[in-house]
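--- STAGE predict ---
source: upstream dedup step, 1 unique chain passed
mode: sequence only
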Amino acid sequence: MKMPARLRPCLALTLLFTLSSAPHAQQAGLQRPNDLERYEAQATDSVEVTIDDRVLRLAARALSDAKPQERAAKALLAGLKSVYVRAFEFEREGVYQPSEVEALRSRFNAPEWSKVVGVRSRKYGDNVDVFISSAGAQLKGIAVVVAAPRQLVYVHVSGDIDLERLSELEGQFNVPRLELYRSGKE
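--- STAGE serialize ---
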């Protein structure tokens, strides 16, 4: 699926969190909208990722404690509960309605969720929203909704997300080096 260059940084951020975190199903609730399936038949390209805590635990067991990068990844996976991604690319515009995108966003209007990023491009028609769920200083979930004229992306990751451990994976396992978080150690 070819993505416009202006959306690549948002997708990179989304993938960074998706590769290294997962949803907290009990507190944040797995936000898996069933109504997205109807876009599958209309999409020229689509992506579906559904990973629950059982699969995440299995993946963590496959990683070695002897290798530093794998040990860091294993520590991140230990706190994750689930990862859900749906992405669609369409041949034409107008496949989905703005009200349908708003319904996706409204899933994160609950008190435990905060909108931290909102991007609107009148010129290109791109819209990006990023939501986080936290308990105290602990990040418990992240959700991303991307709506472009010919593209719709929905990501929900829940679980304990440790940004410092996440930063240790930058440049490893195809996780991009974004330098989003740095501790005072440097």
